[in-house]
Amino acid sequence: MARVWMNHWFSTAYNIINLIRNAIPGIEIIGSNEHLYSPIMNVCNEWYQEPVLKGEQYVSFCLDFCHEHRVNLFMPRREMVSISKYKKRFTDAGIKVMADDYQYVSILNQKHEAYEFFKQHGIGVVPDFFIATNVDQFREAYADLSQRYKWVCFKFVHDEGGKSYRLIDNNRKGYAALFKKQTTRISYDAAVEALSEKSTFSPVMIMPFLPDEEISVDCLNTPNGLIAIPRIKDSTRIERVCYDHDILKTCEDFYREMPLECPCNVQFKYLDGIPYLLEVNTRMSGGIQMACAASRVNIPGIAVGKLLGTSIPWINKKDEKRVTHVEVPVVLD
Hints:
Elements: E1 3-7, H1 13-23, E2 28-33, E3 46-49, H2 55-68, E4 73-76, H3 80-85, H4 87-91, E5 96-97, H5 102-108, H6 111-120, E6 130-132, H7 135-148, E7 152-156, E8 166-168, E9 185-186, H8 188-195, E10 204-208, E11 214-222, E12 225-233, E13 239-241, H9 245-257, E14 264-271, E15 274-281, H10 288-295, H11 299-308, E16 321-323
Parallel strand pairs: 1-2, 1-4, 2-3, 4-5, 8-9
Antiparallel strand pairs: 6-10, 7-8, 7-10, 11-12, 11-14, 12-13, 13-16, 14-15
């Protein structure tokens, strides 16, 4: 019996687990999180609280955990880059790992390196960007971009979940500001003041803010071809699955140059009718269940079957659909 471990995933992995169970009956799911409680615990066969570790120390914990709990397939989210770097330690022990080779994962998880790769290989259209490690560089980048674009944003290169993302908004006061979400907004002066606390700081990427539609493409390379399901996201909770030619071509171009074998999520944003390639996340997205429901293609199940040596057939008719989700209460204890 296959035993799959998912470490510290986001709460919507609740849906990913159900999709895996639908595709592979009888599979055993082990879940863990640094927090004792998570909705995922309700759909796992076993549930554990894991320590807060980083890098190689966490990798060693994961390997020991796999041995102790007889894990056949490890589906990491936390510390994926480190786990990818030491993946051979798992495969040598007979443990499958749903993580692509480090040569790819390391590039894609460094946004500026990924952009240089995309530009070098002619993959899609990449936004203008600058990298700053001191305030003077930040000022120069902002001065350049603000002359050509209405909005400018920035985030630290080493970031997870966009925690450091800020939109520079110099009109954060007054009545109109009451209708704007303020948590991600900062004035230029406040940004400079904060960054000035360090003579040098971790690399910051400065780029134009792209205000139009966001496209999230859930992808998986299979022996029967590339699965690519684009979801258009806007300010509502209703998403549209639409198979735009330019979006699909960029995904195909990406896979020709970087043939990932595990699920990934390709992010685009439009500006003036141009879909800009923003990033490739080397994991399943938090909304992948939306793409699966609309397309009737079970990406998580197919991906797990692929690693376990089971071919699960799929057909994507590429019908355009609208899809949404409804929150339901979940009792944890």
